[in-house]
Write a structure and sequence with these properties.
heterodimer, A: 113 residues, mainly beta, 9 strands, B: 7-stranded mixed beta sheet, 4-stranded antiparallel beta sheet, 11 strands, 0% helix
């Protein structure tokens, strides 16, 4: 599986946009970029995923560079409830079995007043 | 919004005892997974399950572990003879399909404490 690199921690002021970067320079052409977050010890929460194009949903936007070697998750107006560990995961395509998620250590985002 | 539910939220068991962790996946999902997270460590894949059989398992998933879909709604993880190092959060997940563009959705986990 392609490896991802994320900063260990980031701070963001409440109401501001949080931009979380991720490097995945060894990603292959058919691998998806997924973002999950984990609030305290709860289960990982799916946020968004993409292949080549930028994606937006009610939670966040995902910007993938043209060469696909990096991406940025954007939380447009961070709130205190967005404080969590954010995981960027490159997921292999279907290989004949259900493709697992391989979690790294993620970025701990602290949203402050 | 449909969600994955797990019971119990916390299980305390004596070392050497058997434990069964239960999950109710999202109703139209066909692929099921178990992950675990030891305190302070990464979330680790244990096993995936489709069409009543294991699709893939990790090195952690040894002979002490088994999974079952006993009926149309439940998905269980059994640990036959628990060890101290089995203490962890166990997360169940499900997805519509096993392909890369179908997200897995997680439950809030069972905290397993082995004494």
């Amino acid at each position: 599986d392609a490896k991802t690199t994320q900063p260990p921690s980031m701070d963001c002021a409440e109401g501001r946009a949080a931009n979380l970067p991720c490097n995945h320079s060894t990603i292959s052409g058919n691998e998806y970029v997924y973002w999950y977050r984990q609030i305290h010890s709860q289960g990982p929460q799916y946020i968004i995923h993409g292949l080549k194009n930028n994606e937006t949903n009610e939670m966040a936007s995902l910007i993938i560079t043209e060469d696909r070697k990096s991406s940025t998750l954007i939380l447009p107006h961070a709130t205190l409830r967005d404080t969590a560990v954010y995981y960027c995961i490159v997921r292999p395509p279907y290989t004949g079995t259900a493709s697992k998620l391989t979690f790294g250590t993620g970025t701990r985002l602290q949203v402050t007043l | 919004e449909p969600e994955v539910t797990q019971t119990p939220s916390h299980q305390v068991t004596q070392m050497g005892q058997e434990v069964i962790l239960r999950c109710v996946p999202i109703s139209n999902h066909l692929y099921f997974y178990w992950y675990r997270q030891i305190l302070g460590q990464k979330v680790e894949f244990l096993v995936s399950f489709y069409n009543n059989e294991i699709s893939e398992k990790s090195e952690i998933f040894d002979d002490q572990f088994s999974v079952e879909r006993p009926d149309g709604s439940n998905f269980t993880l059994k640990i036959r003879s628990t060890k101290l190092e089995d203490s962890a959060m166990y997360f169940c997940a499900s997805s519509e399909a096993g392909v890369g563009n179908q997200p897995q959705h997680f439950g809030d986990g069972t905290r397993l404490s082995i004494l």
